[in-house]
Amino acid sequence: MNKSGSLIVISGPSGVGKGTIIPYVLKKVKRLKVSISATTRKPRNTEVDGVNYYFISKEKFNSMIENDEFYEYVNVLDNSYGTPKKQVDDLLAKGYDVILEIETIGAEKIMNEYKCVSIFISPPSFSELKNRLINRGTETQEQIELRMKKSEKEMNSVYSYDYVVINDDIEDCAEKIACIIRAERLKVKSSKAFINKIINS
Amino acid sequence: MNKSGSLIVISGPSGVGKGTIIPYVLKKVKRLKVSISATTRKPRNTEVDGVNYYFISKEKFNSMIENDEFYEYVNVLDNSYGTPKKQVDDLLAKGYDVILEIETIGAEKIMNEYKCVSIFISPPSFSELKNRLINRGTETQEQIELRMKKSEKEMNSVYSYDYVVINDDIEDCAEKIACIIRAERLKVKSSKAFINKIINS
């Protein structure tokens, strides 16, 4: 069986809305799943273990690093985030495309090491990004200033990606990402089994 | 001004339905035009000069070849077809994406010589393609057999293209092509001016 989906890396500056958009994309596209990251940070209000993240201890995280069980892992503001390999590989083998929603540093690692489709979500402007972080209300003023400096760096990594989508309107942004995923499935290199069937018909 | 659209090559075996699908695509996507080819063949029933083709004499066609006025030209079953450069270049300069609907031999020339997005339209099977040629009723039995042999050759060129779309249902096929064109516009390499604006915001 040579049934295998594509890795789809979705990244962008902190606060751009990656986590909000992806459920909309999942509703629009069949045969698509999102990878659940492991993190050592505390859950935010509405977050559920095993749904939003696997919330694990620093000890468990370190043992997974030692056992090479992550596609990538990264430390962001005192917390660690990682993409567990097994869960993603199982889905790819079943023919699902799998979205990895990751910070830009982790995304760079994946893009350098694995075949993937990469999508950068951009804010319409930096002032809009700052407003969103303030409205989220989960960070202090100092943390927001720190994040904004980081966001400017993160924005510069956009040139490493295949696609860039502006998050101006959630529904529109999700439709554009869905369109990218559908178009990628129509690439000749993704359709070889099907083409051979027609040629031999 | 650095405003420039993309060349979009749409090809596939004779009779696959390229000419039928493209008007549907044009309705779905803004800022998109189709190039009008010049040909020496006689108009079919409903075809209009300057809309479906520029119907020109063999003498005129040859003088355009001599003056290097074609992107590509090709002879198909005693007739000549060519893509006039000027009309396409004017539209690209205005920021339109321009579809070139061309036979596979002309498409290969364009793909080798110019930066373009290439889409191959495939029949669901060869038997379906034969049925369509019979139903079109414009060719003799002998011409159909000749076309089918050519179609098998044409089908093998699919691997030179970026994308392949099966024409099983016109509306579905047109939507897929529209999706490819929208996704191509979201590529980072197509969005540099916009990205710079955000980074400098």
Describe this structure in words.
The structure is a homodimer of 201-residue chains. With 201 residues, chain A is of the alpha/beta class. The first copy, chain A, has a single domain, classed as P-loop containing nucleotide triphosphate hydrolases (Rossmann fold), CATH 3.40.50. In chain A, 45% of the residues lie in helices and 21% in strands. The first copy, chain A, has helices at 18-28, 58-66, 85-93, 104-113, 126-136, 141-156, 170-185, 192-199, and strands at 7-11, 32-34, 37-39, 53-55, 70-76, 79-84, 97-101, 117-122, 163-166. In chain A, the strands form two sheets. In chain A, strands 2-7-1-8-9 form a five-stranded parallel beta sheet, with helices on both faces. In chain A, a hairpin with a 2-residue loop joins strand 5 and strand 6 (79-84). In chain A, helix 1 packs across helix 7 (170-185) and helix 5 (126-136) packs antiparallel against helix 6. Chain A is globular. The mean pLDDT of chain A is 91. The interface between A and B is medium-sized, with 33 and 33 residues.
CATH architecture of chain A: 3-Layer(aba) Sandwich
- Shape assignment of chain A: globular
Strand order within the widest beta sheet of chain A: 2-7-1-8-9
Number of strands of chain A: 9
Oligomer: homodimer
